[in-house]
Amino acid sequence: MNEENIRELMRWYLDAGVDETISDAPVDRFTAAEQSAVFASQAEPDAAKASQAVPDAAKPSPGKSDKAGKPQDQKPRQDNTLPQGAEAAIHTAVSLASAANSVEELRSALESFDGCPLRKTATNLVFVDGNPAAKILFVGEGPGADEDLQGLPFVGPGGQLLDRMLASIGLDRQSVLISNTVFWRPPGNRTPTTAEIAICMPFVERLIDVVDPDILIALGGAAAKTLLAQSQGIGRLRGKWFPYSSPRLPRPIDAMAMFHPAYLLRSPGQKREAWRDMLMLKQKLTE
Fold first, then answer.
1. Is 67 part of any domain?
2. Which uninterrupted H or E stretch holds 198?
3. Does a structural domain hold residue 62?
4. Which residues form the domain of 184?
5. What phi and psi values does residue 180 have, to the nearest 5 degrees?
6. Distant-in-sequence, close-in-space partners of 283: CB < 8 Å, separation ≥ 6
């Protein structure tokens, strides 16, 4: 490729949202695709021969059960188990988190914790921002590119909108504490996996215990479902108060779900509902 083609390719990458690499060596996807096609073409004759070699009587008929009583046409169940090593990482996270008795001790524990695979591709740990003594705790989904570079949650365009939302009811970053359900940026800003959230959750839960806020706000559907133990979408969860409790809290915490600021930037028509949620928060502060 000449220099002009390379320049156009890089421009296309940027337009597609690619802003970082996670491997030192490039991968030739074209060669990989060609090899896969060759392997598939070589495997087809062998598969056909194997199929012909099976007697018709041995071939399963539609709806017929095998020896275990399972219908042959039944689809295999999906494996929802945690990936290898995740369970051990969760146990380690529980041990480290339970030993922390302050926000700073939790940060130190996270800095020494290497059980979350997101850490390998992230630039910085993104833990909390704001006032650890605040009575309002916001928990979002995960850090983005700006947060990863600065090591602080909600500092990108979504964070700037959150600042304006707080200011609309007389609050600022020194009035609240802000965190996420995972503390390292997922590559490409993808949604954190169930395993990644589960590995970080002991630290999130301990953060809530240590801060002991009066109000807990889950920003976005992923955070809402995780913290509120709900299966409904954010559109149905927002605008309501839920009790959040844990064995180490002296009493249940008033919790509410709100649209994530990044979603509001993409869907400005939902800002009216977000404003209603902010008014609900303001009303709760006066009770």
1. no
2. helix 194-211
3. no
4. 86-286
5. -145, 170
6. none
CATH of the domain at 247: 3.40.470.10
DSSP state of 82: P
Distance separating alpha carbons of residues 213 and 284, to the nearest angstrom:
13
Report the range of poorest mean pLDDT among 29-38, 95-104, 206-215: 29-38
Structure confidence at residue 223 (pLDDT) = 96
Q: Is residue 97 part of a domain?
A: yes
pLDDT at 85: 84
Give Cα 225 distance to the centre of its chain: 11
Rounded to 10°, the helix 86-99/194-211 angle is 10
Could you tell me if residue 239 is inside a domain?
A: yes
pLDDT at 7: 73
Q: What is the model's pLDDT at position 66?
A: 40
Q: Which SS3 state, helix, strand or coil, does residue 186 take? A: coil
Tokens 């219908």, residue? Answer: 71
The predicted pLDDT at position 60 comes to 44
The number of folded domains in the chain is 1
Give CB contacts under 8 A, 24+ apart, made by 162-167. 162/138, 162/219, 162/261, 165/261, 165/274, 165/278
Q: Give the model's pLDDT for residue 117.
A: 95
Tokens of residue 54, six digits? 């099976």
